[in-house]
Write a structure and sequence with these properties.
mainly alpha, 16 helices, 2 strands, 1% strand
């Protein structure tokens, strides 16, 4: 219990910051859903420098692949020494590990966004915890229920529903000073209630299709954006085309097995990554049916921003790197071809002199 209290107290400044930002955007746009969209875009824009840094590190690692392979050949039976030398090589060449920080921050930001979706009265409307508890106690004293949902301090969805649907309860809360009319927010996006949890159950959807059918758009879009983002990560990564061609050669000739892997790669790591690409969209889809639609909206906008960022980073860094690499390889091939021709010409000249 103490750990839960500590976690909430440590995160409280972030909850208050996110609440302030959404309140600021709500005051400007007058729409809760649009406020979440703007905040999500702002978060993703702040993460772009990390995306760029991560991509630069990846390109540096690709450039060091030859030296990495040499280390692996030098210490074939000593994995610990291999790792030590590879880490040293990466440090000396300025390869960072911001790629590990990026997923962590994306997960970290979910916690304050979840609080914005589940506890908007406290963090967006700025109703005190004491007043929220007082309203819950009043509803329990009068034996008022909110569609079967539990009234709890940490999740305001049931209380908000009660305030929106029971005029006498709202009037009494206002008269007692628990809440002001100005603190009542319209928590929707173009008519879609973002405090509601989407349902996949046919009987629930049929019971109120006008309410539940529009909510299905969020799980569907979460699934699509997650799949698209995962595919772009795979397709836009450095050397994707070369790896794909190598795999095609492996398939045609099993004797070539292993040449499609980058140094340090292995079948189990590749299989794990492939499994994650399949599992992640499913996990995201299932999760979107268990949380308020506001979280689904956050994931959808975040997914779209991730796709846009990947495309921008690809054209800014990955593509120029690949073009430069291709140019160098062509120069190397032409130089080798010219040397071969020169050697052949010298050999032919030597033969002619001997004949004379």
């Amino acid at each position: 219990m103490n750990l839960i209290v500590l976690k909430f107290s440590l995160m409280e400044p972030f909850y208050l910051l996110f609440g302030f930002l959404i309140r600021l955007f709500y005051g400007f746009f007058g729409n809760y859903g649009v406020s979440i969209i703007v905040l999500t875009i702002l978060i993703r824009l702040c993460l772009i420098p990390l995306n760029i840094k991560s991509q630069k590190s990846m390109l540096k690692m690709q450039a060091l692949s030859g030296k990495t392979a040499e280390i692996q050949r030098k210490y074939p039976d000593n994995k610990e020494k291999q790792q030590e030398e590879i880490m040293k090589l990466q440090r000396e060449n300025g390869v960072g590990f911001s790629g590990c920080l990026l997923p962590f921050l994306q997960i970290f930001f979910l916690f304050p966004m979840f609080r914005m979706a589940s506890a908007p009265l406290r963090y967006i409307s700025q109703v005190s915890s004491e007043n929220i508890n007082a309203m819950i106690a009043l509803a329990q004293k009068k034996d008022i229920v909110a569609g079967g949902r539990a009234l709890v301090e940490t999740n305001h969805i049931a209380l908000i529903e009660l305030l929106n649907t029971n005029e006498s309860f709202l009037s009494e809360c206002i008269s007692k000073g628990y809440i002001a009319m100005g603190q009542m927010l319209n928590l929707d996006l173009f008519g879609i209630d973002l405090t509601s949890v989407p349902s996949w159950k046919p009987m629930v959807i049929i019971s109120d299709p006008g309410h539940y059918v529009p909510l299905l758009i969020f799980p569907v879009l979460v699934l699509l954006t997650t799949i698209m983002s995962n595919q772009l990560i795979k397709v836009l990564k450095p050397n994707y085309k070369a790896e794909k061609e190598a795999k095609a050669r492996e398939k045609a000739n099993p004797a070539r097995k292993g040449q499609s892997q980058t140094p340090g790669a292995n079948d189990s790591a590749e299989a794990s990554m492939k499994m994650m690409n399949y599992m992640m969209p499913v996990i995201m889809l299932v999760t979107s049916f268990t949380l308020p639609a506001a979280l689904g909206l956050y994931w959808v906008v975040g997914g779209v921003m991730s796709i846009i960022t990947q495309i921008i980073v690809y054209f800014m860094f990955t593509k120029p790197y690949e073009l430069k690499k291709q140019e160098l390889e062509e120069k190397k091939a032409n130089a080798f071809k010219k040397k071969k021709q020169d050697d052949a010409a010298s050999s032919e000249t030597g033969k002619k002199k001997k004949k004379k």
